[in-house]
Amino acid sequence: TMVDIVTHVSTAPFRPALNIPFPHGSLVGMQTI
Known about the structure:
Oligomer: single chain
Shape: globular
Helix content: 55-70%
Order of helices and strands: HHH
Structural class: mainly alpha
Number of helices: 3
Mean pLDDT: 52
């Protein structure tokens, strides 16, 4: 979804290790933050 994309982009610089390996890394990054 758009929210997932925005979250993924916003968390990418902070959680690259979570965003790269997982398709839903945006959700993981959001939960981590």
